[in-house]
């Protein structure tokens, strides 16, 4: 995935439509996320999307991912490529094995999502590689209400249909773009507040306004489900307006 909006020309979120760079010729990395989906109580879709976005932000802010931290090299290698994220699902013993691996678990109202330090595209830990990646679909028990005033919102394109797993990855992309655009002080304030955010689907009219607003726009690489270059989400953080 990539974004064209407000991002330096050498950013890994550059347009996928641009000329391939040396980054594309080097090793590629992926950020694994695993959502817990038990047979008897799957999480709500919006809660899973919001929890995935907060998981990505939590990893980016973690001291292990920064400076000389133990995950910092992997994060740098990942951020120097195409910033791929892949969401898989687990339950029961699968979830317990995933929790035993280094990572961070975020809990929402009903969702549990574990994010792991980036891994090579073809080098997943076996306990994550065996998890299912396709067919993850979730529903909301009732439509989500309006986001509270002042809450950062990740707005989804109303014209695109995505599985829950694909949408969770896109929500994570949007949160990451917002994070990169913020100043250090704004990042710290968001982190200290616990990364409040909302995920909502825009109306057609609002989507047109958002994509012309200068806010960060995620454009998908087209590896799965949707066409390359499709605008999937807009990251609307109050500090970016």
Describe this structure in words.
By secondary structure, the protein is an alpha+beta fold. Helix content is 30%, strand content 17%. The protein contains 7 helices and 9 strands. The protein has helices at 45-61, 72-79, 92-99, 126-129, 164-181, 184-192, 204-211; strands at 29-36, 84-90, 104-107, 112-115, 119-120, 153-156, 198-201, 217-219, 231-236. The strands form 2 sheets. Strands 1, 2, 3, 4 and 5 form a 5-stranded mixed beta sheet that branches. A 4-stranded mixed beta sheet has the order 7-6-9-8, sandwiched between helices. Helix 1 (45-61) runs parallel beside helix 5 (164-181). Residues 1-20 have low confidence and may be disordered.
Proportion of residues in helical segments: 25-40%
Through-space gap between termini: 23 Å
Shape: globular
Poorly predicted spans = 1-20
Structural class: alpha+beta
Order of helices and strands: EHHEHEEEHEHHEHEE
What share of the residues does DSSP label as strand, in percent?
15-25%
Number of DSSP helices?
A: 7
CA radius of gyration is 17 Å
DSSP strand tally: 9
Instruction: Give a quick account of the main beta sheet: strands, pairing sense, barrel closure.
Output: 5 strands, mixed
Mean pLDDT: 89
